[in-house]
């Protein structure tokens, strides 16, 4: 029995090491190394590129050409991270021990939520690319709070984006993003646990014990189990992702109305831009040039500050991608909370900036 247990423990160590190696190499190639160059660009030029939304003057003007152009531009920007997200989301289901995940991230305590949020910081993914990993965590019985904190923390508390924002926009915008982002990632995620059935402590302990004592490996080799997991995930994610991005790109011209002068810095505009930002989908850090472009066209600091939170946090496509992993009422709660925090952030931005 001891020999068997030792063998299982060695295999677990190898599996975790493989997962960490894949994650480190993938994130270094897709995120960390490119962001070093982008940070230098932000510091030296006070810009990280043009707005993916194009000219704000085109708001309200629809064409299939501009819709398709946005879809192509978006997927060219995110495809590497999206592939990495699917790979990591499938690997977490076959490599990471269920008992370890349940012990550290399976509780509805604030501690599990905090761990989920902190482990998101190196990921630096957009909301859609982080969605497969969050879904994979949920399939391993990670708590709603911890999985949400990981999902929301990737885009909202991205350290690289905070650096870009400081030099391209201002330190005031960065401070607003950090404060309201922390509330969203750790506070709202923790509260979301209340919208799901709460397992009794003895029930959670029983599940952990079962996972610890489950010695028999799953059927099939690691490769076959991983390919099966990744295939199931890709079969849903790829078509749902493409169709939802196409849909949101089609309605893009009406999501962000632009009014000049005083009307561009009102509570109504803050609310409209908060809702539009919550629905719209962007690559990582795209909110920075979007805000920069809108403000140069006359948008006030209030609606701009609202987009600080709502644009990166979630989107209609990302909500669809995680729909099977979280209860519907949890996603409604998160969507409402993102809009509310966006409005509050916008009001602070309007009053103090």
Automatic annotation (TrEMBL):
It is found in: Cell membrane. This is Permease. It is a multi-pass membrane protein. It comes from Bhargavaea changchunensis. It holds the Pfam family ArsP_1. The keyword Transferase does not apply. Belongs to the UPF0718 family. The chain crosses the membrane at residues 12-30, 71-96, 148-169, 175-192, 233-255, 267-291, 303-324, 330-352. The keyword Transmembrane applies. It comes from the Bacteria. Its main location: membrane. Keywords: Cell membrane, Membrane, Transmembrane, Transmembrane helix.
């Amino acid at each position: 029995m001891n020999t068997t247990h030792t063998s299982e423990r060695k295999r677990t160590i190898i599996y975790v090491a493989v997962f960490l190696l894949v994650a480190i190499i993938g994130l270094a190639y897709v995120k960390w190394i490119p962001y070093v160059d982008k940070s230098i660009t932000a510091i030296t030029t006070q810009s990280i590129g043009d707005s993916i939304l194009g000219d704000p003057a085109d708001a309200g003007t629809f064409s299939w050409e501009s819709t398709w152009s946005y879809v192509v531009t978006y997927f060219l920007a995110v495809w590497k991270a999206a592939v990495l997200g699917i790979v990591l989301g499938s690997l977490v289901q076959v490599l990471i021990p269920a008992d370890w995940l349940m012990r550290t991230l399976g509780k509805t305590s604030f501690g599990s939520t905090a761990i989920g949020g902190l482990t998101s910081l190196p990921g630096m993914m957009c909301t859609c690319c982080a969605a497969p990993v969050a879904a994979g965590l949920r399939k391993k019985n990670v708590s709603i709070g911890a999985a949400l904190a990981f999902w929301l923390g990737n885009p909202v508390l991205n350290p690289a984006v905070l650096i870009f924002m400081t030099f391209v926009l201002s330190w005031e915008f960065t401070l607003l993003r950090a404060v309201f982002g922390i509330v969203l990632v750790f506070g709202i995620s923790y509260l979301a646990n209340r919208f799901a059935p709460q397992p009794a402590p003895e029930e959670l302990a029983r599940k952990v014990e079962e996972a610890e004592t489950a010695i028999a490996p799953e059927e099939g080799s690691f490769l076959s189990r991983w390919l099966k997991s990744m295939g199931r995930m890709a079969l849903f994610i790829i078509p749902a992702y493409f169709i939802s991005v196409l849909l949101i790109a089609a309605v893009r011209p009406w999501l962000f109305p632009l009014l000049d002068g005083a009307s561009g810095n009102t509570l109504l505009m803050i609310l409209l831009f908060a809702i539009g930002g919550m629905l719209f989908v962007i690559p990582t850090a795209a909110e920075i040039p979007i805000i920069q472009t809108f403000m140069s066209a006359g948008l006030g600091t209030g609606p701009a500050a609202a987009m600080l939170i709502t644009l990166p946090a979630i989107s209609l496509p990302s909500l669809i991608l995680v729909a099977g992993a979280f209860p519907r009422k949890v996603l409604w709660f998160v969507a409402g909370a993102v809009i509310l925090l966006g409005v509050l952030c916008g009001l602070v931005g309007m009053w103090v900036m």
